[in-house]
């Protein structure tokens, strides 16, 4: 009803106290529903899954509803904060542009850099676990490089690798390398003394111990790094595009459209990045559940 009332020119932009009381009632009702749903403990598996989906969905709908009515009811200028409906309309009308930006940033920059960075981090972690002196020398360097500001590294990568996607993939590889190195190295050392003594009693080589003991024990740590890097990779690629890129990409579009005060397009690009990040994270989490189904954190 409040959304319908906003179609009235006398309310849209100049809403009075009666309108805001209705909005407050909707907010309280939605909050009450979320609390009631959160207290439910269904026994059926599909009901639990539906409930786990319904709670964040209702919460998200409420947030977007409040955003819509607050912006339109209070008459906030679109150049400061457009309503979600305007951003959604721009998203739908700009699908060809958004698809090109998605391919440039995510497919070329994020995925390639993600595979290179995570793969290199895992490989170096295995070497550092095999040769102790490498671990002692690499971890302090890892802490140093992980503290480097992204806005300082990105222009250097653009100068080294050019303005196209290779420089963005290089930034992504750099920001994802050390989280994988640190987590994988901790995971490779997570196996107990009894298991290691058992493999030695079998006369197993290091490669056999690696595949049968060290890597399976490290899988929860490796997937933890993969999930962390799923978000870091997208952030790194978008930030890197602020410092030089072809006329495509999520970061490029955000920068140029913000300069033109086209905030609806900026929010459409932000929505694209959020959707891509959530789907990417969800795929990694699904792969984790399929791979480490034996781990107590997954079984419970």
Question: In a few lines, what is going on in this structure?
Answer:
The protein has 13 helices and no strands. The chain has 300 residues and is mostly helical. It is flat and about 85 Å long.
Question: What's the helix and strand layout?
Answer:
Layout: H1 2-5, H2 17-39, H3 45-73, H4 84-93, H5 95-130, H6 132-146, H7 150-161, H8 165-188, H9 193-201, H10 206-240, H11 250-259, H12 263-291, H13 296-299
Helix pairs in contact: 2-3, 4-12, 5-6, 5-8, 5-10, 6-8, 7-8, 8-10, 10-12, 11-12
Report on this model:
This protein has helices at 2-5, 17-39, 45-73, 84-93, 95-130, 132-146, 150-161, 165-188, 193-201, 206-240, 250-259, 263-291, 296-299. The chain starts with a helix and ends with a helix. The chain is flat. The model has no long low-confidence stretch (mean pLDDT 83). It is built from 13 helices and no strands. Helix content is 80%, strand content 0%. The relative contact order is 0.10. The longest helix has 36 residues, at 95-130. With 300 residues, it is mostly helical.
Overall pLDDT confidence: 83
Shape: flat
Rg, Å, rounded: 24 Å
* End-to-end C-alpha gap: 43 Å
Percentage of β-strand residues: under 5%
Fraction in helix: over 70%
Number of helices: 13
Main beta sheet strand tally, sense and closure: none
Count of DSSP E strands? 0
* SSE order, one letter for each helix or strand: HHHHHHHHHHHHH
Unreliable runs, pLDDT <50, ≥5 residues? none
Oligomeric state: single chain
Structural class: mainly alpha
